[in-house]
Specification:
The chain is an alpha+beta fold. About 20% of the residues lie in helices and about 30% in strands. The radius of gyration is 18 Å and the shape is globular.
């Protein structure tokens, strides 16, 4: 299908697990203490964009990611897995920090051609269900377009890698609900990969605040001087 679910703590042994726990606390404090202008408030959630939003031409202004988004996730965890080895820049250069409070979600959508077709999502806070939808065709009914074809349960401290057909052939979204229901081996496609399946054997999970770190590689990157020079010619 083109997805892989991994738990970050699996890469740590002994005292290093304490380091990972400390990192989560540190990252959470960095997110919550960000100045208000750093947050973009949308109808259904709020987000931060690092190092910056893309331009109108889907170009990223070259700038490094902040260190708290790089270590120890990108270096060494992503590097060990060779996640972005085949990406044009060999590493993620763009991160979205999405916050979902209970009842919030995002409509089915696709990330599009601005990015290398691979997304690595780190989940913090509470679990949440990611719904995958077949892209609508002329034969798709309204009922079919509203019903997910696959569902992925993203647990805290999990790393979800989506690529290949999952990236190109499906829309993805998060339902606006206070409670994820119909959880089980027959409805959650990564059930066998869950770290705590017994937690969800009741068939539901109450939503709490969940934060995701979405790592991607933007294909078009320009230095600030080059961008300003281009704009001055328009």
């Amino acid at each position: 299908m083109g997805f892989l679910s991994i738990y970050l703590s699996h890469f740590y042994r002994g005292g290093c697990l304490t380091l990972l726990t400390g990192w989560y606390s540190y990252v959470s404090s960095q997110i919550t203490s960000a100045p208000l202008p750093r947050w973009t408030h949308l109808a259904r959630r709020r987000l931060q964009t690092w190092p910056s939003a893309l331009t109108n031409t889907n170009t990223l202004i070259a700038a490094p990611l902040p260190s708290w988004l790089v270590s120890p996730i990108v270096n060494p965890r992503f590097d060990v897995l060779n996640i972005f080895r085949d990406a044009p820049h060999g590493a993620p250069n763009h991160v979205l920090v999405n916050e979902y409070c209970p009842g919030q979600g995002i409509m089915p959508h696709e990330d599009g051609p601005a990015y290398y077709p691979l997304v690595a999502t780190v989940s913090l806070g509470a679990p949440i269900v990611l719904d995958l939808y077949d892209k609508p065709t002329s034969d798709t009914t309204d009922a079919q377009s509203r019903r997910p074809s696959h569902r992925i349960l993203q647990e805290p401290r999990s790393l979800l890698i989506t690529t290949d057909k999952i990236y190109t052939d499906f829309l993805h979204g998060i339902a606006e609900t206070d409670r994820d229901e119909d959880l089980g081996a027959s409805s959650i496609c990564n059930w066998d990969l869950l770290r705590e399946p017994k937690r969800y054997e009741c068939g539901w999970s109450h939503r709490e605040t969940r934060v995701s770190l979405t790592y991607r590689d933007v294909l078009k990157v320009a230095k600030l001087g080059s961008t300003m020079k281009f704009l001055s010619k328009r």
